[in-house]
Amino acid sequence: MLKAKQSSEPIKVVIRCKGLTQRDIESKAREAVTVDQSSCEVSLHDLANGKCKKFTFEQVYDEDSSQKQVFDENAADIVQGVLGGYNGTVISYGTCASGKSFTMNGSQEDEELEGIVPRACKVIFEKIEQQEKKYLVKASFVHIYQGETRNLIGKNKNKSLKIFETSDGQIQVKDIKTVRVRDAESLLKVYRAGLRNSYVGSTRMNACSTRSHMLFFITIESEEIGEDDKPYIRKGVLKLVDLAPAERTRKTCCTGERLKEANSVNSSLSVFGQVVSALTSKRSTYIPYRSSSLTTILRDSLGGTSKTVLFTHITKSSYSYDEVLIALKLANRAKFIKNKPTLSLLSDSESILEFQSELSKDELVENQEEQKMHSFDVQSSIAQDEPADHDSMVIEQEQKLADEDLSVNDEKDIGEQDTPDAITVSQQ
Ligand SMILES: Nc1ncnc2c1ncn2[C@@H]1O[C@H](COP(=O)(O)OP(=O)(O)OP(=O)(O)O)[C@@H](O)[C@H]1O
User: Fold this and answer.
1) Is residue 423 in a domain?
2) Given 346, 363, 379, which residue is the final one in a domain?
3) Element (H, E) at 104
4) Once rounded to an integer, what is the mean pLDDT over residues 75-98?
């Protein structure tokens, strides 16, 4: 793999603050957080003793921020980078019910409320349509539930997937389900099918609380001819990560399975915090990535070659003071993590052949469709003595293809031929 090294840059840390909910107001919570968007300052007030802790970040959003603004100002660049052959990561972290899933997924009912993932899916294909180049787009969706990495799409969703490191230092997830997609709608279908399979449970803090860390991967490859007249594949992986919340189990009063889930999430988030600390401490000689599946998969995103934005969600409620303080302290440290975004240009014959053979399948399908249309054209002209309706034929055929490819939720494996044993999710 050819890699044009770039200089290091800090990961972007963004704070998004949610206002008091009706429930907070009814339970007499007060506002313990103030956000100054112009100075990018967040103040956390200890209302009992009148003290205040101030933090500054690259970008802070109050409760009136729009989904579009949040995407445009933080994720659009990352998506553009992935199209250009860089890895990109968006991580949604924060306290319970603070809007982590709202930022990533948002609401399907109202386009204005769509989150980063649906917006990214649309932008990717809008940009691809503006290009002459051919692109391959593939998606995978896994979650980490009680310490096990599992597919959220395809068959065998209960199988625990192994994470391993290849001899050249890449982190891969074995048997991850990967689906080739040809348009934004299909990509969104994969995402939504995975979401339907995710584990959401009711807690005292949130009726729809995420019980596992969810990681949606979009791999984008494009081919070009280099100055040496040889073919190269530009390859970028976009990781869209919705983390489960750290939970004070005494507060959420969960028991049984919910308690096990919370303990497992807390332990992986504690490793996440240790990795952030180690990466930003001058004294540290070891980064404990391997202590959890989450940080192993995110190795490239934290201190690696990815362009990364870390959203830290907090709420204004005075009852969440302790959790907000922990989240702000982690975010404040994460500001000092440096990554080296690195362009990935593949020149090995295996990658090029794989890319070209995928594209040749498209040509085969296109030729078959053309032949079918031609015979339909001739037959219908003979039968009706009228020209065939080409446009509606094409739309029908495309719809059929999309449906066949994306019947993910029916446990029917899709794009089986597209499924490699493993995909690279992290690089040294
Ligand atoms: N900025 C926002 N504007 C409007 N509604 C929001 C906003 N952020 C969150 N919400 C609403 O607050 C509720 C909780 O949000 P969400 O489920 O996204 O939180 P979460 O942090 O993912 O929760 P959990 O930690 O339990 O997984 C949802 O009803 C969501 O629609």
Assistant:
1) no
2) 346
3) helix 100-104
4) 97
Based on the domain organization, do 263 and 362 belong to the same domain? no
In a domain, 72, yes or no: yes
**DSSP of 29-66:** --B-EEEETTTTEEEEEETTTTEEEEEE-SEEE-TT--
pLDDT for residue 205: 67
Look at ligand 1, atom 15, and give the residue with the nearest C-alpha.
Answer: 99
Are the C-beta atoms of residues 426 and 296 closer than 8 Å to each other? yes
Q: Is 149 annotated as a binding residue?
A: no
Query: Which residue CA neighbors atom 9 of ligand 1 most closely?
Result: 99
Range of lowest pLDDT (199-208, 212-221, 403-412)? 403-412
pLDDT tens digits, one per residue of 315-339: 999 999 999 999 999 999 999 999 9
Q: Is 427 part of a structural domain of the chain?
A: no
- 84 C-alpha vs ligand 1 centroid, how far in Å? 32
Q: In terms of domains, do 172 and 298 share one?
A: yes
* Full-model pTM: 0.86
78 and 202 belong to one structural domain: yes
Does residue 425 belong to any structural domain of this protein? Answer: no
Summarised one tens digit per residue, pLDDT across range 32-57 is 999 999 999 999 999 999 999 999 99
| 129 and 143 share one domain | yes
What is the rounded distance in angstroms from the CA atom of residue 118 to the CA atom of residue 78?
A: 14
| 392 annotated ligand binder | no
Q: Mapping DSSP to helix (H, G, I), strand (E, B) and coil, where does residue 132 land?
A: coil
Owner of token pair 């690089």: 427
98 is in an annotated binding site: yes
* Ligand 1 atom nearest to CA at 21: 12
Region 263-268: mean pLDDT is: 90
Same structural domain for residues 337 and 383? no
Q: Residue 351 in 3-state DSSP?
A: helix
- What's the 315 CA to ligand 1 centre distance in angstroms? 10
Does 362 lie in the same domain as 284? no
ipTM: 0.98
Domain boundary among 298, 327, 346: 346
Is 18 a pocket residue for ligand 1 (Cβ < 6 Å)? yes
84 shares a domain with 197: yes
Shared domain for 385 and 267, answered yes or no, is: no
Q: Is the CB of 210 under 6 A from ligand 1?
A: yes
CATH number of the domain encompassing residue 231: 3.40.850.10
Residue 374 is part of which domain span?
Answer: 352-417
Q: How far apart are CA 129 and CA 125, in angstroms?
A: 6
Distances (CA, A) of 246 to 68, 101, 131: 27, 14, 42
- How high is the pLDDT of residue 120? 98
Q: Which atom belonging to ligand 1 lies closest to the Cα atom of 208?
A: 17
Q: Is 313 in the pocket of ligand 1 (CB under 6 A)?
A: yes
